[in-house]
Amino acid sequence: MERVWELEVAASQEEVWAFHSSAEALEALTPPGRKLTPLTDDLEVRDGALHVMGFKLFGIIPQKWKARISDVRPPHGFVDTAEQSPFKAWRHHHEFIALPNGGTLIRDTVTYIPPGGPFAGLVNKLFVSKDLDALWAFRHQATKKALDSKLGKP
Question: Tell me: the pLDDT tens digits for 30-39?
C-alpha cells in the first residue's frame, strides 16, 4: 500500500530540513497519546543511522520501532525504512521541495504492508488507513506550528 500526504509551508527548504532532521522534531511530530521513547542516543539523520524507539501499541503492549536512515540528501529529504515495527514492511520517504514563492512543499510518501497476514487489507481499511490520516493531520499541524514559531509568526 502507498499513501502520500503533502503540506505547503512558508519556511525555506533549509529551514524545513533543519527542523525535520532534528531530534526535536521527533517529539513535536508525535501525538501526545503516542509517546515515543528513544532507545538510542544517536538520532542524527545520516545514511546508515539506526533509530530505535520504544512505544506502546494500543497504549499497553510494549514495542520497538527500528528505522534505518538512507538516501539522505540535505536539504531535499531522506528515507526511513523500518527494520522492526508492527508493520510487515514500512518505508517513509520525506521530501522537501523548494517552491517558487520561497516556501517548501513537504511530501511524505509511505509504502507499507499492514499487519494481519491474509486480512491485511481489511486491517488497513478498518484501522491503519484512518490512523495514518489522523497521525499526518497532527504532524502537519505540529509542523506548521513549529516552523511558524521559528520564523516569528503568530
Answer: 888 778 888 9
